[in-house]
Please model this.
Amino acid sequence: MKQSEGKIFNLKPEMTLAMKLAASFAITYYGLLLAFEIVTVVFRRYYFDALYINQEELTLNSKDFIYQIIQLALSALLVFSLIQIFRKKVYGKAFFVSGTLILIVFQFIASGPIPILKYILEVLMLLIIAPLRVKKKIRVKDGKLQIEEVETPQEPQEPQEKEKP
Model:
């Protein structure tokens, strides 16, 4: 008897309470970060003059402006991916995981390891939102691989009331 082999992971996201809370916080966090980056791109001259206290003209080819545009694009990707997670799309988690990892590496390169709290916060959001549910287990019995279905716990349904005559 040959067992049909399917996908091992359930890619369609099922929103647990912890995932809903973390995704709600993440969309607020990355949404505010996106709003800040839009404001700094629009008012970049005033922002950089106040931050670096130098009167040098910023050009579109400057390193700082390119960093801003890259971070703006990554934040927009993260907000988009979180919206897709709430819409329960399959590719939402993939975009979120890859975008978060790229953003963490980019921030580490751009600003260094000093603000460690933001890295910890982003990694915690990633660890809570990213896990996939397992549909099948792979076991080794008597030297052979066996694939078994994993039972998913059903949500308790509300009892239906009987109609009174």
